[in-house]
Design brief:
- With 137 residues, this protein is α+β, with helices and mostly antiparallel strands.
- The protein has one domain: endopeptidase fold (from Nostoc punctiforme).
- The protein has a six-stranded antiparallel sheet. It has a two-stranded antiparallel ribbon with strand order 1-2.
- Strand 4 and strand 5 form a beta hairpin.
- The longest helix has 11 residues.
- The mean pLDDT is 95.
Length: 137
Protein backbone atom coordinates (compact mmCIF):
# COMPACT_ATOMS: atom_id res chain seq x y z
CA UNK A 1 0.00 0.00 0.00
CA UNK A 2 1.34 3.43 -0.96
CA UNK A 3 0.43 5.16 2.30
CA UNK A 4 2.36 2.65 4.40
CA UNK A 5 5.43 3.06 2.20
CA UNK A 6 5.21 6.87 2.33
CA UNK A 7 4.88 6.76 6.13
CA UNK A 8 7.90 4.45 6.45
CA UNK A 9 9.96 6.79 4.27
CA UNK A 10 8.79 9.85 6.21
CA UNK A 11 9.75 8.19 9.49
CA UNK A 12 13.19 7.37 8.07
CA UNK A 13 13.73 11.13 7.72
CA UNK A 14 12.96 11.97 11.37
CA UNK A 15 15.75 14.16 12.69
CA UNK A 16 16.48 15.78 9.31
CA UNK A 17 16.93 19.51 9.82
CA UNK A 18 14.28 21.97 8.66
CA UNK A 19 15.12 24.07 5.61
CA UNK A 20 12.70 26.17 3.53
CA UNK A 21 12.33 24.63 0.05
CA UNK A 22 14.49 21.68 1.15
CA UNK A 23 14.15 18.59 -1.01
CA UNK A 24 16.76 16.16 0.31
CA UNK A 25 18.11 14.62 3.49
CA UNK A 26 20.33 17.69 4.04
CA UNK A 27 17.20 19.72 4.86
CA UNK A 28 13.43 19.55 4.35
CA UNK A 29 10.38 21.70 4.83
CA UNK A 30 6.91 20.17 5.19
CA UNK A 31 6.24 19.98 1.46
CA UNK A 32 9.73 18.64 0.82
CA UNK A 33 9.22 15.90 3.39
CA UNK A 34 6.00 14.67 1.80
CA UNK A 35 7.48 14.98 -1.70
CA UNK A 36 10.70 13.13 -0.83
CA UNK A 37 8.93 10.38 1.14
CA UNK A 38 6.52 9.84 -1.76
CA UNK A 39 9.34 9.78 -4.33
CA UNK A 40 11.28 7.25 -2.24
CA UNK A 41 8.08 5.16 -1.99
CA UNK A 42 7.81 5.09 -5.78
CA UNK A 43 5.23 7.82 -6.35
CA UNK A 44 6.13 10.00 -9.33
CA UNK A 45 5.43 13.60 -8.35
CA UNK A 46 6.60 16.72 -10.14
CA UNK A 47 9.04 19.00 -8.37
CA UNK A 48 7.01 21.68 -6.55
CA UNK A 49 7.35 25.24 -7.81
CA UNK A 50 9.10 27.64 -5.39
CA UNK A 51 6.78 29.17 -2.79
CA UNK A 52 6.88 31.68 0.04
CA UNK A 53 7.28 30.58 3.65
CA UNK A 54 3.82 31.91 4.48
CA UNK A 55 0.93 30.71 2.28
CA UNK A 56 -0.50 33.39 0.01
CA UNK A 57 -3.47 31.47 -1.41
CA UNK A 58 -4.93 27.96 -1.67
CA UNK A 59 -2.18 26.66 -3.99
CA UNK A 60 -1.13 23.88 -1.59
CA UNK A 61 -4.68 22.57 -1.30
CA UNK A 62 -5.06 22.70 -5.10
CA UNK A 63 -1.78 20.81 -5.59
CA UNK A 64 -2.90 18.06 -3.22
CA UNK A 65 -6.15 17.70 -5.16
CA UNK A 66 -4.12 17.12 -8.34
CA UNK A 67 -2.22 14.12 -6.96
CA UNK A 68 -4.25 12.67 -4.09
CA UNK A 69 -7.90 11.98 -3.28
CA UNK A 70 -9.59 13.88 -0.46
CA UNK A 71 -10.98 11.80 2.40
CA UNK A 72 -13.16 12.88 5.33
CA UNK A 73 -11.05 13.95 8.31
CA UNK A 74 -12.54 11.23 10.50
CA UNK A 75 -11.46 8.59 7.95
CA UNK A 76 -7.81 9.66 7.65
CA UNK A 77 -5.40 6.88 8.42
CA UNK A 78 -1.68 6.18 8.60
CA UNK A 79 0.13 7.32 5.47
CA UNK A 80 -2.49 9.87 4.44
CA UNK A 81 -1.39 13.47 3.95
CA UNK A 82 -2.89 15.92 6.41
CA UNK A 83 -3.31 19.61 5.58
CA UNK A 84 -3.28 22.38 8.19
CA UNK A 85 -4.20 26.05 8.17
CA UNK A 86 -1.58 28.69 8.80
CA UNK A 87 -3.74 31.71 9.42
CA UNK A 88 -6.45 31.99 6.78
CA UNK A 89 -4.77 29.72 4.23
CA UNK A 90 -3.79 26.07 4.26
CA UNK A 91 -0.01 26.01 4.38
CA UNK A 92 1.34 23.01 6.28
CA UNK A 93 1.34 19.28 5.50
CA UNK A 94 2.49 16.10 7.15
CA UNK A 95 2.01 12.35 7.05
CA UNK A 96 -0.63 10.86 9.34
CA UNK A 97 0.53 8.13 11.69
CA UNK A 98 -0.15 6.21 14.87
CA UNK A 99 2.60 7.00 17.35
CA UNK A 100 4.71 3.84 17.87
CA UNK A 101 5.15 4.49 21.60
CA UNK A 102 1.75 5.86 22.57
CA UNK A 103 -0.64 4.21 20.10
CA UNK A 104 -2.52 7.44 19.37
CA UNK A 105 -2.88 9.61 16.26
CA UNK A 106 0.32 11.43 15.38
CA UNK A 107 1.91 13.38 12.57
CA UNK A 108 5.30 13.08 10.89
CA UNK A 109 6.17 16.56 9.64
CA UNK A 110 8.98 19.01 9.07
CA UNK A 111 8.31 21.51 11.83
CA UNK A 112 9.98 24.92 11.75
CA UNK A 113 9.65 25.61 15.50
CA UNK A 114 11.42 22.29 16.22
CA UNK A 115 13.91 22.89 13.35
CA UNK A 116 13.59 19.27 12.21
CA UNK A 117 11.41 16.45 10.96
CA UNK A 118 9.57 15.09 13.99
CA UNK A 119 6.74 12.76 14.91
CA UNK A 120 4.41 14.25 17.45
CA UNK A 121 0.90 13.76 18.75
CA UNK A 122 -1.83 15.06 16.47
CA UNK A 123 -4.21 16.26 19.19
CA UNK A 124 -2.46 19.61 19.89
CA UNK A 125 -2.45 20.35 16.14
CA UNK A 126 -6.00 19.18 15.37
CA UNK A 127 -7.59 22.63 15.69
CA UNK A 128 -5.83 23.73 12.48
CA UNK A 129 -6.47 20.48 10.58
CA UNK A 130 -8.38 21.35 7.42
CA UNK A 131 -7.97 18.43 5.02
CA UNK A 132 -6.93 14.82 4.56
CA UNK A 133 -5.76 13.22 1.33
CA UNK A 134 -5.06 9.63 0.32
CA UNK A 135 -2.56 8.43 -2.26
CA UNK A 136 -4.00 7.14 -5.52
CA UNK A 137 -3.23 3.51 -6.33
Amino acid sequence: MIGAAVLAEARSLIGTRWRHLGRNAAGLDCIGLVWLAARRAGVALPEPEPYAREPQDQALRAALHLHLDPVPLDQAGPGDVLLFNMGIYAGHVGVSSVHPDYGVASLVHAHLPRHAVVEELLAPLARELTGAFRWRA
